[in-house]
What does this fold into?
Amino acid sequence: MGLRCVIEGKEYEYDGKLTVGDAMFIFDKARIGVNDLNRALIAEGNPYALAAWLFLMKRRAGEAVRWEDMSKLDMASFNWLPDESADAEEPTSEGEPAAEENPTSTPGENQNDATPNT
It folds into this structure.
């Protein structure tokens, strides 16, 4: 699952794929390189980076959108959505939930934690 947001009531998801053309478009519109895109979007909330990224997300969703339309988006309706995959418990190779670590155990309490004799 990728980066998700909602704006003006519609949800968009970024799958992590970025073509050279996408990167060129973002750089042309926001003067942000690929390495700085995540920081510009999430940490800084750079409006030019957000507009360029949302433009691409809207296009990928099949919407007919023009660059001029981006300046009319209601930023008060914009929200990042939590990553749902982070909440899911990862199964073990046998399909069962991974065993939880005992928070009260101390190092050396069992044979696996013991320091070997040298």
Notes: DSSP finds five helices and three strands in the chain. The first strand starts at residue 3 and ends at 7. Residues 3-83 form one domain. The radius of gyration is 22 Å.
